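Researcher: I'd like a candidate sequence for this fold, 305 residues long. If you have to choose between options at a position, lean toward the conservative one.
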């Protein structure tokens, strides 16, 4: 496990349908993220917040809301993320809405091309985020990042990172999905995305789900986790803009994170869509920090190292 951690705050809700995710980075800091990681012997440097355009809160143009602004934020994140990876550090993106997965994962994919690593992306989310402008009436780009990364979308987004598509669908494993639009569902199937939805988790259990999602991860794998906080059941995590009932319980989420930690391959992390404006006494941020701690080795069992 890489001991040098960089926190990168990206305070924007530019791709979202509700305001407030721009306050997510500060909520995670208030919940003590840096101190919690340091308690595990990790060396944490908080790089502060990236800067980008304000949210103009306009209707979509040709199917995309705030395309230029979304591209600017994601380009800034791509550059920052890539710089951290080149220094051999483990970057944690403090989002921000999930459109930022475009900048983050395109940087990780670029780093993997440069270093000859295999990429595995675990997309923990209630939504498949595989929409396109023709499929979504809202035009909110936080519903599109996986599609964009796989080459479906406008060039200002698909071209970030210098290669289109940035990734192929076979590197992604989606976990916890329970809200997919009809047209989006068709596109997901066509792309061959591997999805472990909530029915799969209900039937097979989280342990089997994670065993399947982590299959083939080895010492040459860069494991990237993109954690949308709405992955969690809203009963335990109310502070998100798009709550979908029926998500993983606290224990299921803990097991998911612990099994990722067990691989020893986690190399970059996104924490997205935390919305303090909709939270209760920063409870969701504190839960997110608790789960991140499990990603970095906190175990509920007295396990011998």
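Model: Candidate sequence:
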């Amino acid at each position: 496990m890489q001991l040098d951690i960089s926190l990168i705050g990206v305070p924007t809700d530019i791709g979202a349908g509700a305001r407030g995710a721009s306050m997510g980075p500060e909520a995670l800091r208030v919940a003590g993220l840096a101190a919690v990681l340091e308690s595990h012997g990790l060396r944490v440097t908080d790089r502060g917040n990236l800067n980008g355009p304000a949210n103009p809160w306009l209707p979509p143009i040709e199917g995309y809301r705030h395309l230029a602004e979304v591209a600017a934020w994601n380009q800034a994140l791509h550059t920052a993320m890539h710089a951290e990876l080149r220094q051999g550090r483990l970057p944690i993106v403090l989002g921000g809405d999930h459109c930022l997965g475009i900048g983050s994962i395109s940087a990780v994919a670029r780093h993997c091309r440069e270093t000859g690593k295999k990429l595995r992306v675990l997309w923990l989310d209630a939504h498949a985020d595989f929409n396109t402008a023709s499929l979504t009436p809202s035009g909110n780009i936080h519903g599109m990042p996986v599609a964009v990364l796989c080459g479906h979308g406008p060039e200002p987004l698909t071209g970030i990172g210098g290669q289109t598509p940035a990734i192929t669908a076979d590197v992604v494993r989606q976990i916890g999905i329970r809200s997919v639009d009809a047209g989006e569902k068709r596109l997901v199937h066509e792309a061959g995305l591997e999805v472990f939805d909530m029915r799969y988790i209900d039937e097979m259990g989280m342990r089997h789900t994670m065993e399947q999602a982590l299959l083939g991860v080895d010492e040459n794998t860069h494991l990237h986790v993109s954690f949308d906080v709405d992955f969690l059941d809203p009963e335990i995590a109310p502070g998100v803009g798009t709550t979908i009932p029926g998500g993983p319980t606290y224990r299921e989420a803990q097991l998911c994170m612990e099994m990722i930690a067990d691989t020893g391959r986690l190399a970059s992390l996104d924490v997205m869509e935390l919305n303090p404006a909709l939270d209760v006494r920063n409870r969701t941020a504190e839960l997110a920090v608790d789960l991140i701690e499990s990603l970095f080795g906190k175990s509920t069992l007295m396990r011998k190292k």
